[in-house]
Amino acid sequence: MEVFAKIMGYVVLGVTAIAVIAALGLLWAFPIKWTWNATIPPIFALPTITWGKAWCLNFLCGCLIKASQTNNNK
């Protein structure tokens, strides 16, 4: 039974970590929405976006643009 409790502890930890990461991603959508709606429609005459579209834009940019670390020590 001790092994089962240990495994369940790891499962709960993993689910909690995923929930926290998802919540932070959803929270980060608000500044993206506000920034887009304040700058893009007046400049380029594009439509404003909703909170859900801002979250999708955040997710898409996160998938396409990754920060990379390079080691230039030679």
How would you describe this structure to a colleague?
α1 (2-44) crosses α2. The chain has two helices and no strands. The protein is mostly helical.
Keywords:
74 residues; mainly alpha; 0% strand; flat
Helix content: over 70%
What can be said about the biggest beta sheet? none
Residues in β-strands, percent: under 5%
Estimate the mean pLDDT confidence.
Answer: 89
Distance between the termini: 52 Å
Number of strands: 0
Order of helices and strands: HH
Total number of helices:
2
Rg calculated over all Cα atoms: 19 Å
- What is the overall silhouette? flat
In short:
With 74 residues, the chain is mostly helical. 77% of the residues lie in helices and 0% in strands. Helix 1 crosses helix 2 (51-64).
SSE blueprint and pairings:
Blueprint: H1 2-44, H2 51-64
